[in-house]
TrEMBL record:
Pfam families: p450 (PF00067)
Alphabetical UniProt keywords: Heme, Iron, Membrane, Metal-binding, Transmembrane, Transmembrane helix
Annotated source species: Tetraodon nigroviridis
The keyword Heme belongs to this UniProt entry's keyword annotation: yes
Gene3D superfamilies: Cytochrome P450
Record-given protein name: Cytochrome P450, family 20, subfamily A, polypeptide 1
Required cofactor names: heme
GO cellular component: membrane
TM annotation in the entry: 6-23, 270-292
Signal peptide range: none
Amino acid sequence: MLDFAIFAVTFVVILVGAVLYLYPSSRRASGVPGLNPTDEKDGNLQDIVARGSLHEFLVSLHQEFGPVASFWFGSRPVVSLGSLQQLQQHANPNRSTDSFETMLKSLLGYHSGGGGASTENIIRKKVYQGAIDATLKNNFPLVLKLVDELVGKWTSSPEDQHTPLCAHQLVLAMKSITQLALGESFSQDARVVSFRRNYDAIWSEVGKGFMDGSLEKSTSRKGRYEPALSEMEATLLSVVKDRKSQRKTSVLVDTLLQSTLTDRQIMEDCMVFTLAGCAITANLCIWALHFLSSSEDVQDRLHQELEEVLGSGPVSLEKIPQLRYCQQVLNETVRTAKLTPVAAGLQEVEGKVDQHLIPKETLVIYALGVILQDSHTWDAPCRFHPDRFEEESVRKSFRLLGFSGSQTCPELRRVAYTVATVLLSAVVRQLRLHRLEDTLVEVRSELVSTPREETWITFSRRN
């Protein structure tokens, strides 16, 4: 069984930075076929930059060298796995040090959680996941309300009006995530606007700036990033203090306050939840609506299921598991959009893939975007076809990649899928989605796959 963690929001650059921080001593080459470093100091970083993204670089790397290939990240050798068969062979028993939260916190400067598989860290992870579950259960009516407000706006607009998906879904995600995490004070527009300003500054640099060292070389960019991070931290710590005195028990921060975590640790967990939650939720909703707008048959089948399961009532947490075709639509959205195109992990013990040995402390890249478009794994891989998930073999492949089951990160499995299901249940029962003619949506496959430009659709009312 594939034994590594795949993250809801895949920050391979964060993983690289954290591995270099946590394990600076490893310098052994892997012997796997691949590229020689083009620069003694930067390795193949300039090759990655020239390709436009790490995903595009990995596509070309595996086309040239096959399913197991290597390159250099600075002076460190990296092994990339680009097929499902090779991923199944990969064994990495100690996966606790590779968790998304540990890596993201490391680059943000949060080392209180540390790495490793200590009992303290395992308990902390369980507390975090349990807090997310409790938050969704306690605040599901909030998600319904925010979705109803958005869909109501769409239904009251002229049918030929062009609707900007990216802008609307990011706002929906930010309103949902901030209120789920931090409470009702973030229902105020001014607080959401302030949050978005800092979020944009942090998100644009996490990953990108660390990948090529450009953040350290740019005084102006550091001048935006560092104050934004400090202000966000101060805001979250203020919320922790306020909620502690109020003794409420409804949102994420409240549940975390009931644990033995320090205020600083709670702030860190809230930072991870808001950053990852906003990005993955917004983009899952964007891509799901975009693909539905291009497939009338899928819309009709989804509408039929929603009518049969929900009737005229709203969706509920209890009924979401019954919406099996809706789950297939979201799974196929993640696959077709290559929502998280790259993941990574540290090789804790010496391993072997095919005839290639992978030394201990080697950084191993999981080229998910390459695999998600592999014709040997998926029939017609570029086609949006939710029916494929009726087959157990397809569902098994999806699980092996870490996109379903217990390995899925909580921000994707618990939060993004819930918000997206509520959104689709409201939109599809009231409206038909239409793609604008002559509109080509290009994918920017970086940390999370997003459209390169604003994505527009139109709606018409169902009879």
